[in-house]
Amino acid sequence: MTRDLCASCTAALRDSQLYLTDFELEEIKEYKQVWYLGQEATKARSSKAAEPQNTKSFNFGYDTKDGFYKIINDHLAFRFEILGVIGAGYSGQVLKCMDHKNMELVAVKVIRNKKRHKALLHRITLWILRELDKNNTANIMDGFWIILLGDLYRAIKGSKHHGLSEKAVKNYTIDVLKCLQLLRKKRVVHGDLKPDNILLYKHGTNTLFIVFLHPSSTDQPVIHTLYYISPEMLLGKRCGPATDMWSLGCTVAELHLGRRLFRGCDTADHFCCIMKVLGVPPPELLIAAPKRHNFFREQKDFRL
């Protein structure tokens, strides 16, 4: 179904009942316009009402047991055709798709279909989008982020790891700080801030930036990538807004330098890399640190 063949829900139901699943025949009623139906896909044939509970937990056959979307050539939101998987992470996967409304290739980040990922993510994300200035929000719908320009890690790779201009780094940093400021108001920690999770979005003539949220409230565990984790988190301290600020500092340095600021091969080596630059943490921090014995035999004695 091309752009010229956009159909209403009623017309799509009339013409496509043979290859839509029982689940899709119900789902399509929620959409006013239909651009693509996934006619070429080998669909998951399941009934929303008749499936056993263990199948329902895998999104009626559309997801893997880990909550990732798995049907190639199928549709997303009756608009996007899934062409392949670009990459996957803890909180979701990035799919290469054809947007049949605008007839252009896009990358779509799909949130992992697990309750603990989606509930808080949706609540915080929608609030962030309402609060941010219109020129700093990306297009989110039904759990999908539409990304037209990739992410900051790809931007670094595009510079052949020579780093970005000071002007670009400044603009990116300001936009991320706006998001972090709003997160702090909600007592939420992003938890995995890094170039890969800062997505680039094109809107009109402006290039806009927003963080892809994998948020956690301050009393919940967060997922960190080693190169961007703060010393406090390595020492077992509770996460907070300062955790994200450390990750942002590492990210800004990487944008400018074209390489990671601290590059330890494991937690002990990474902590050592940090201390070579910043010195040993202050005694008052170490005394209260639950995991200090992972790195120190005695105070100021680093365990190699």
UniProtKB/TrEMBL annotation:
Which organism is the protein's source?
Echeneis naucrates
Q: What is this protein called?
A: dual-specificity kinase
State if tRNA-binding is listed as a keyword: no
The answer to whether keyword Transport applies is no
Spell out the Pfam families in the cross-references: Pkinase
Q: Give GO MF terms, alphabetically.
A: ATP binding; protein serine/threonine kinase activity; protein serine/threonine/tyrosine kinase activity
**Catalytic activity annotation:** L-threonyl-[protein] + ATP = O-phospho-L-threonyl-[protein] + ADP + H(+); L-tyrosyl-[protein] + ATP = O-phospho-L-tyrosyl-[protein] + ADP + H(+); L-seryl-[protein] + ATP = O-phospho-L-seryl-[protein] + ADP + H(+)
User: What would be one Gene Ontology cellular-component term for the protein?
Assistant: cytoplasm
Every Protein kinase domain range: 80-304
Upper taxonomic lineage:
Eukaryota, Metazoa, Chordata, Craniata, Vertebrata
Q: Which family does it belong to?
A: Belongs to the protein kinase superfamily. CMGC Ser/Thr protein kinase family. MNB/DYRK subfamily.
Q: Cite the EC number.
A: 2.7.12.1
| Keyword entries, A-Z | ATP-binding, Kinase, Nucleotide-binding, Serine/threonine-protein kinase, Transferase
Xref: PROSITE patterns: PROTEIN_KINASE_ATP, PROTEIN_KINASE_DOM, PROTEIN_KINASE_ST
Binding-site residues for ATP, renumbered to this chain: K109
